[in-house]
UniProtKB/TrEMBL annotation:
Keywords: Membrane, Transmembrane, Transmembrane helix. The chain crosses the membrane at residues 20-36, 43-65, 71-91, 103-122, 142-165, 172-189. This is HupE/UreJ family protein. The keyword Cell cycle does not apply.
Amino acid sequence: MHPFEFYLKLGFEHIADMTAYDHILFLVALCAVYRIEEWKKILILVTAFTIGHSITLVLVSLDLFSIPSSIIKFLIPLTIFATAIHNVLGSDQAVKSVKMKRNYVMALFFGMIHGMDFSNYFKALIMDPSDIVVPLLGFNVGIELGQLLIVFFIVGIAFIFLHLLKVKHREWNLFISGAAAGMSLVSMVESIS
């Protein structure tokens, strides 16, 4: 198998792994506040997350950055919790453009935190930091494809509830964001016990 294909598959499997649901839960929380008509915004946010993820992979692979695993295990659910709370508290239409810019920064930064979880394994796989370009590109394309598939599924479910079953968007956002916040709180407690 070509190295690019190997890392592409690895990236896709990493993001779509149901046993490591933290990435999927983050994407659910990230999408909860958006309607299907805002698909461009969702794609930009997902890409910002991928960029943040790749920044961390580069920094760790080049031995420029490292955080203990125990802290990362707490920070990842914290990003989900913060996103969910931001969805609920920051839903005022008057500040929508400011909120969108803030969401981009949050997705980028939170992508960096999520990237920390996989970075040491990625570093061990590449072994030679000077040969990082193909693995990094393949891995991130795989992550992006996996995220887009997951987001397509999430937005499809949202479409059914919002457009076909006529659930109000505010209630949808509160329910999804509340569920994500609750699940992330459980993960935070588990990470410190």
